[in-house]
Amino acid sequence: MIVAGIGCRRGADRADVLAAIGEALAAASLTADEIDLVATAAEKGGEAGIAAAAAELGRPLVLVPPDRLQAAGECAVTRSERVVALFAVPSLAEAAALAAAGAGSRLIAPRRVFGGATCALATDGAGGSS
């Protein structure tokens, strides 16, 4: 399973979210067809750009609760002081991807930024897309 974890500034549009996903996919030499889920923080559940991007990809949007986000954030490899102040994790995109991918997950593409959106990719290690 491969999860695209998303972070964004308030009001980020679908195009920026999709572009950030594209940047992360390119870094990992993957295609959009290989993504199983799109994930973000529960607090970002109202962001229309994230929901629209997940819908365009035809993938479920998983909203990660704060406790799971913070536990997964311990494995993040990049850091944004702004995100630490807002969400108490170093990278919202990385923490969301890792949390949604589950126990034993690992990053396959650290946070990539495009416009007002970020994306990181994580896998559960089960051998890719289902």
From TrEMBL:
Enzyme Commission code(s) on record: 3.7.1.12
Keyword Transferase: no
Domain CobE/GbiG C-terminal: 2-122
Keyword Hydrolase appears in the UniProt entry: yes
InterPro entries per record: CbiG_hydrolase (IPR052553), CobE/GbiG_C (IPR002750), CobE/GbiG_C_sf (IPR036518)
Membrane-spanning segments: none
Keywords: Hydrolase
One GO MF term: cobalt-precorrin-5A acetaldehyde-lyase activity
Listed name of the protein: Cobalt-precorrin 5A hydrolase
Organism name: Kaistia geumhonensis
